[in-house]
Design a protein that fits this description.
The chain is 97% helix and 0% strand. The chain is mainly alpha-helical and 61 residues long.
């Protein structure tokens, strides 16, 4: 009986680990997506800042 209980506990642990790994993968995908969005916004902001700098330099000339 003791071995049956150990096997059951082991199976439950494996199931829980698989569930946690699935959650981690989902969270990781969300983080990667957020980083991609942030990168795009940063690139847009850098381009806008560069345009402002050029405009201000032209106005000063």
């Amino acid at each position: 009986m003791k071995y049956g209980k150990m096997a059951e506990n082991s199976a439950q642990a494996v199931k829980k680990i698989k569930e946690l790994l699935a959650v981690i993968q989902t969270d990781q995908k969300s983080i990667v997506d957020a980083i991609k969005v942030t990168t795009g916004l940063t690139e847009s902001q850098a381009a806008a800042t560069e345009e402002i700098a050029v405009t201000m330099q032209n106005m000063a000339s």
